[in-house]
Please model this.
Amino acid sequence: MVLSMFSAAATGAQTTATSEVKLTPQEKQLVANFDRRVKDYLKQRAQVKKKLTPLSKEATSAQIEAYQQAFVSGLRGVRAGTKPGYIFIPAFTQYVRTIIQTEFPPRDKAEIKQTILEAETKGVPLKVNYPYPETKELSEMPATLLLKLPQLPKEVKYRFVGRHLLLVDSDNSLIVDYTLNALP
Amino acid sequence: MRRTRNLILGLTLLILFVTGAVYGQGGTSNKAKPNGRATGNGNAHPAAPAIKLSLPNRKDSVKFLIIGDTGTGTAKQHDLAEIMLRSRASFPYEFVLMMGDNMYGGEKPADFKNKFEDVYRPIMAQNVKFYASLGNHDEPAQRFYEFFNMEGKEYYRFTRANAAFYALNSNYMDKKQVKWLEDELAKDTSEWKIAFFHHPPYSSGGKHGSDTQLREVLEPIFVKYGMNVALTGHEHFYERIKPQKGVYYFISGAGGKLRSGDVKDKSPLTEKAFDKDMSFMLAEIVNNQLFFQVISRTGETVDSGILVSKKKQ
Model:
């Protein structure tokens, strides 16, 4: 059986779904402040990270575990007393809800919700400075939604747990912040 | 006369010896281990005949294996790994592409050992490299793991001969990754561009189905830059999708789990599907042809075919 492969050139007219959200001046300010708070976390993170033995790109599983534990421990120390909402202030939560409600047609909105809510995340603690449990599924962040949300630095990620939005560290799974009901 | 009688006797003994040896490999072994493995509860038969190849198995071709959703550590995963190992005896694939969900449940060192190292050690011992992508059950820190060859990156590219392989993180397809993919593809002159990632943009699965939001972002890029093939997992079965806008989509997500009967009947997307048992794919690139063969846990071939690349000018 020979399956013919067509040239892709003929379909070059299609566009990618990378269109940015058009921000009002107030929203620009909101996003700029959000970015600043994320950078504040990155500074704390860098302080802790420089004290750790760097993790090799070909690490053993034991080295990865030890690195993550030391990282979390160090971050908990420098972030002791951090309250939820330090990064995800209420206005930002409302901004996320507005994006989901206004930037997507009904069908896409329904699919986004389905993707987020089908993940088995029951039992993930909504607690700042706690690690996201390694035994729990990480909900897929819908690609179209990620393109509309403010881009995060690679050190942190958005994650949904049910309708709640978390900010999670990419290297050690620490829950940096969370906000309730970001998914309308 | 006596010489003739000795010759006949010798021949008879030889025949008995050969027959006994063949019987011993097949029948005796199966009798002793009805479930295939001492530790297994599956139905694979390690002493079964060699796996029939439908691949050309050329000397200088690019040979690889595709498997997804492996990380369980179950006896059935071991059974399938044994078939993978046996396949290599006749088809010496050089590397394995992993479609994500490399580690279900915990990710402690014991999990890496039980769900990956112990399972694939005999294959890795033959210098076969595993290249992983991340699924929704995988912590991003897996990118540092020595045997996943991700070089600390959640998405990355590597090449072999005339083929470029793109490992994507479909669990987190953000602007940065999209830009990286476009930038890499824009300068890629490889004859074969093959993406592998976890979530299938097209699927006939009843449990999950097509990831339309991912498709909305990736498909225009694949089409624009001539991605030939997209290999995915997430669904715990095998499916070959009818070509979509010139791109071939495969699901190979039954490497450690099976969702039996999950492929929707009469799905308009399905070219071929198999959801009766666990499976993996073998692939071989020979110039502008990609040969594939899908093998089940019992060593049966459940699909095979040839893709032909028409390189974008």
Notes: The first strand of chain B starts at residue 62 and ends at 67. The domain at 56-308 of chain B is CATH 3.60.21.10 (Purple Acid Phosphatase; chain A, domain 2). The helical segments of chain B are 2-32, 75-90, 109-124, 175-186, 212-225. Residues 1-44 of chain B have pLDDT under 50 and may be disordered.
